[in-house]
Amino acid sequence: MAAGQASKPGLQKRHIVVLMCAIATFICYIDRVNISVAIIPMAEEYGWSGTTKGLVLSSFFIGYMAAMVPTGWLANRIGGRLLLGGALIAWSAFTFLTPIAGSISLAALIATRILMGAGEAASFPAIYNLLARWMPGPEKSRAAAINLTGIPMGTIFALLVTGWLIEHHGWQSVFYAFGGLGLVFAVFWFRLIHARPAVHPTISAEERALLAPIEAETGTVRQPIPWRVLLSHKAVWALIINHFCNNWTLYLMLAWLPSYFRDVQHMSVAGSGLFAIGPWISQFVVGNAAAVVADKMIARGADVTRVRRIMQCGGLLGSAAFFLLALQATTPAMALLCMCGALGVGALAFAGFAVNHLDIAPRHADVLWGITNTAGTLPGIIGVAATGLLLDLTGGYTATFLLAAGVNVLGAVIWLAWGTGRRIID
Question: Where is each Major facilitator superfamily (MFS) profile domain found (predicted)?
Answer without folding.
Answer: 17-423
